[in-house]
Amino acid sequence: MTSDHAPRAAQAPLPDRQGNHPPSSSDHACTGASAAQRDLRPVLDSIVGFAVIVTDATGTVTAWNRGAELAFGWSEEEMRGRAPHAIHTPEDLAAGRLEADAALAGRDGRAIADGWYVRKNGERFWMSGDVTPLSDACGRAAGHVRALRDRTVQKQSELQLRRHNRTLEEEVAQRTRERDRIWRHSPDPLAVMRTDGLLLAVNPAWNSLLGYRSAELIGTLFFERVHPEDVACARAALARSARMPAQRFEIRCRSAAGAWRHFAWNITVEDGLVYASGRDVTAERKLAEQEMQANEMRLRLALDAGAMAAWHWDIRAAQADWIYGMDALHGLTPEQAQRSRTLRGYLALVHPEDRDALRCAMRDALHSVSDFQAEYRIVRADGQIRWVEARARILFDDTGEPIQYSGLCTDISERKRTERDLRFLARASAEIASVEGDQHMLQRVAQLAVPDFADWCCVDLLHKDSALERIAIAHADPDKVHAAWELHRRYPPDPQMPRGVWNVARSGKPEIITNMSDNLLENAISDPERLAMLRRLGFRSYIGVPIASQSGVLGVLSFISAESGRVYSEADLELAQDLARRAATAMENARLYRELQHSDRAKDVFLATLAHELRNPLAPIANSLALMQLRPEDAAVAAHARQVIGRQVGQFTRLVDDLLDMSRINTGKIEIKTEDTDLIRILEAALETSRPHIEAAGHALTIDFGAAPAPLCADPVRLAQVFSNLLNNAAKYTNPGGRIALLLEHADGEYRVRVRDNGVGISPRMLQNVFTIFTQVTHPVERSQGGLGIGLALVDGLVKMHGGRVEAFSEGVGRGSEFIVHLPCAGVAIPPAPLAAPAPGNALSDTTPMRLLVVDDNTDAADTIAELLRLLGNEVRVAHDGNDALALLQEFTPDAALLDIGLPDMDGYTLARCVREREDGRDMRLIALTGWGQLDDRERAAAAGFDDHWVKPVDLERLRGLCSADRGGLGADGKNRLAP
């Protein structure tokens, strides 16, 4: 058991795998433990055979090595910082095993921790080990190290052995009784004799089988009744029994009547006495001879079915006896086979590279007197090279001397080919996983295919323009590779051919030609020179498989056999398809990784831009506030500051709204409210929004809407947003005094709206990604116009929701750009979103004062909105968390409450439910005041009992409307008018 217990760990708590050390209460004088911890950690991580668990003085796990993860199934991250109760059985926990181990280790310096433990999956298993105490550099107790090793198998063996011993004791007594019965009643003769053959005891069967009474036999020699020709065999068996545990031999014994019968004897020697048991096999020998003849016939049938051949090798004569099938296996005539039955003659049939290895294997088997097994190649008379496996069992004579090998030879060429193919697949898969770059990876795969799987391998890539590009030709002979490239240059694959790489690329289906006969080549190729070149290459068999992913066919892998003579099968086709699938998966993963990297870079650019764009409105707001502080009495300064702050807050809100719109489009939650409208009116609305920007830059605007009206079923607000975004972009990215055109066309059942400018233009590289979210066309710093890079993505999403599409065109940087919006004339059939019913009139006047409660943990936000409401003539109370609000309601009953959602002690939803449970809160108007404005946020607010949902910031007009007759969405009947 001592080998199961790990060396005692250093007396210090351990760091985790990231090098973090558990907190220590030690003072600076005890900091020496940290160095020990760092030194010990790599050692424990290298111990995989032992599960090492380190706990601090409170019993909390501070280190959990790789061996513990493998043994228990819990990772270090899951166990660190908690007591290791999960790995102990409930019985041990109830019995206080952990505390007892700790106490014993503290007292004796070590405690045995053998016992049953529990894996993460609930399985129990036995572990052996010990618990040792830890102390810091000052000698104070710092925890324990539990080092354990899985000994479940040994424990189960121990328990089984105990059970087995009890069973054996019972069996010994039973067998003693049975032995006496067997001795008396056995039908076979039993005897006890000395090693010289003197009989000491015989059983009654000697009388029933051979007619001898016990008195006639005891004191006589066993050999007196053995056939003279078999006496030597019997004496040799008794002589060997002194040094070998058991002997079996067959001899003829004479009966009392003088008849000879065949007996099979088994003898063993114990304490200097020979115990012998015989069995009359006279009848069995006759049956055995008959069975041998039948077995020989069955053997021949089995050898034929398994493509095997049988042989004997006479060790003394050094001569082979080819029993059956050996001449056919080696492709020899009977005369040739006769000359090959000596060792020299047989080795002449073996491949020259394998002769020495086979000779050594045969010699080693003879020297070690053991069975023989070898795999080697033979060269058949017809020149074929085949793999053969030879297996043989060694046979001994009656004296125990080896006399013969009896064996089989099996043609294992197919198995060897399969192993070779699997090795090729494994190497190719490793290259696919490790080599960067699609072309380089596929070129390496082609090189690995030669010559194990194919004599030739070609790789063609299919480009987006449907062009095939050959990127690799592989062969073991570089001169042939050069010739093949020349053939490909002169005669590239014909797209009109019914078979070959183009057919595989078009159909996406594999292709196999098992025998590329000369007739096949003649029918497929009409050019005599090309046909002659292909004949010189000697193609025999062909496989073509597509490299295909979910996005389509990426290329074609072609494998061709030639000088090897290999004929491809369906199994080979499956292997080629497997390889192509792995290559396609690697290419697809690489593409996705590149896209992910691009998205990640775009995200970083977006975040930097967002920070910049958010600071832009904050700067004039801060400056305006500073002006108001410096000149508080100047009404003109205050008026100008209010205008600036209002504009910048609007800009701030538009940035957030654009982000939310893009998010709603991506999640399918944006509201599209369609109605019968006119596209010209929508364009005029967009112009009204964008015209100030166009005029401010001094651009010349050309408008052409045509003469006819443009009826459309669409969301006019969202489409106006689309066209104003495009016009604003044109204004921003065109030098002052530029030209902008807005044109409407009607053709082919669709409207086409063109926004054209002569501005900075778009590079071809950026043009393909211009509608991707967070993408911004790169311009010099002096041309930067701001924005988050989501405007065009928003345009693309909104147009697609209307069943249309957007195109971008530019001849390059400095050449201007054009965006074309295509919209179906019939519009898109989107059911209109349900609208809130208009609230009927209210008896209250617009200036009726109200009692209001404002709850927001942001003190500035709560105080400012409360002050605004007071200035509007209302009585307002303020609370900064849910509990304060509930306490305030004990003495103040408001008409309405504006509740923030993100409160510190309870969220606004919980607070709303608490208010509704109050008698005076059932008719109170509850308004959710939050920065969350998605559809599910509104639905959640309605479910919590809110009457309305306002998204921050709330403008002054909405606050004025709070006391109006409409009450901002609450009807006179007091019912909830909250709509998304």
Description of the molecule:
The protein is of the alpha+beta class and 980 residues long. It has six domains: 2-150, PAS domain (Beta-Lactamase), CATH 3.30.450; 186-280, PAS domain (Beta-Lactamase, 2-Layer Sandwich); 285-411, PAS domain (Beta-Lactamase, 2-Layer Sandwich), CATH 3.30.450; 423-595, Beta-Lactamase, CATH 3.30.450; 671-824, 2-Layer Sandwich (Heat Shock Protein 90), CATH 3.30.565; 851-961, Rossmann fold (3-Layer(aba) Sandwich), CATH 3.40.50.2300. Helices cover 42% and strands 22% of the residues. The strands form seven sheets. Strands 1, 2, 3, 4, 5 and 6 form a six-stranded antiparallel beta sheet that branches. The protein has a five-stranded antiparallel beta sheet with strand order 8-7-11-10-9, sandwiched between helices. The longest helix has 61 residues, at 570-630. It is flat and about 145 Å long. Residues 7-19, 23-29, 31-37, 778-788, 828-845 and 965-977 have low confidence and may be disordered.
Task: Chart the SSEs and their pairings.
Blueprint: H1 32-46, E1 51-56, E2 61-64, H2 66-72, H3 76-79, H4 90-94, H5 97-108, E3 111-112, E4 115-118, E5 124-135, E6 141-150, H6 152-185, E7 190-193, E8 199-202, H7 205-210, H8 214-217, H9 231-241, E9 247-254, E10 260-270, E11 273-280, H10 282-305, E12 308-314, E13 319-324, H11 326-330, H12 334-339, H13 343-347, H14 355-368, E14 372-379, E15 385-396, E16 402-411, H15 413-434, H16 438-449, E17 456-462, E18 468-474, H17 478-490, H18 501-507, E19 511-513, H19 518-524, H20 528-537, E20 541-549, E21 552-561, H21 570-630, H22 635-667, E22 675-678, H23 679-696, E23 700-704, E24 711-714, H24 716-732, E25 739-747, E26 750-757, H25 764-767, H26 791-801, E27 805-809, E28 817-824, E29 851-855, H27 859-871, E30 875-879, H28 882-888, E31 896-900, H29 908-917, E32 925-930, H30 935-944, E33 948-951, H31 956-961
Parallel strand pairs: 23-25, 29-30, 29-31, 31-32, 32-33
Antiparallel strand pairs: 1-2, 1-6, 3-5, 4-5, 5-6, 7-8, 7-11, 9-10, 10-11, 12-13, 12-16, 14-15, 15-16, 17-18, 17-21, 19-20, 20-21, 22-24, 25-26, 26-28, 27-28
Helix pairs in contact: 15-16, 15-21, 21-22, 22-26, 23-24, 24-26, 28-29
